[in-house]
């Protein structure tokens, strides 16, 4: 996972040098060297991507919340008894605390 502390299992000096092996950066340098890509194109792509991402985030934040059932339905085609129980407890919890969960994502 990228969220963990990699110093727990990697030498700090090796982590510092990992950028050398960054495949995206290496490809970018190769393409620029072959005159197939430019820094201007890079900036344009980053700006366009950032703007598209911002639109998607705004859309997601303003969308109505999904029904709690989708947390399970999108993952399991059939439930175990334990999953049925957990789903029921989650629904009960949300129903007991509707004022907190209304309009929250």
Automatic annotation (TrEMBL):
<dbReference type="Pfam" id="PF00676">
    <property type="entry name" value="E1_dh"/>
</dbReference>
<dbReference type="GO" id="GO:0003863">
    <property type="term" value="F:branched-chain 2-oxo acid dehydrogenase activity"/>
</dbReference>
<protein>
    <recommendedName>
        <fullName>2-oxoisovalerate dehydrogenase subunit alpha</fullName>
        <ecNumber>1.2.4.4</ecNumber>
    </recommendedName>
</protein>
<comment type="function">
    <text>The branched-chain alpha-keto dehydrogenase complex catalyzes the overall conversion of alpha-keto acids to acyl-CoA and CO(2). It contains multiple copies of three enzymatic components: branched-chain alpha-keto acid decarboxylase (E1), lipoamide acyltransferase (E2) and lipoamide dehydrogenase (E3).</text>
</comment>
<feature type="domain" description="Dehydrogenase E1 component">
    <location>
        <begin position="1"/>
        <end position="64"/>
    </location>
</feature>
<keyword id="KW-0560">Oxidoreductase</keyword>
<dbReference type="GO" id="GO:0009083">
    <property type="term" value="P:branched-chain amino acid catabolic process"/>
</dbReference>
<keyword id="KW-0786">Thiamine pyrophosphate</keyword>
<dbReference type="InterPro" id="IPR029061">
    <property type="entry name" value="THDP-binding"/>
</dbReference>
<dbReference type="InterPro" id="IPR050771">
    <property type="entry name" value="Alpha-ketoacid_DH_E1_comp"/>
</dbReference>
<dbReference type="InterPro" id="IPR001017">
    <property type="entry name" value="DH_E1"/>
</dbReference>
<comment type="similarity">
    <text>Belongs to the BCKDHA family.</text>
</comment>
């Amino acid at each position: 996972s990228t969220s963990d502390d990699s110093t727990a299992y990697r030498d700090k000096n090796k982590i510092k040098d990992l950028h050398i092996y960054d495949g995206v950066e290496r490809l970018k340098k190769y393409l620029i060297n072959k005159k197939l890509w430019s820094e201007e194109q890079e900036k344009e792509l980053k700006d366009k991507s950032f703007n598209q991402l911002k639109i998607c985030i705004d859309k997601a934040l303003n969308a109505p919340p999904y029904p709690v059932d989708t947390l399970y339905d999108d993952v399991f085609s059939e439930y175990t008894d334990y999953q049925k129980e957990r789903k029921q407890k989650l629904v009960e919890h949300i129903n007991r605390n509707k004022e907190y969960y209304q309009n929250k994502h």
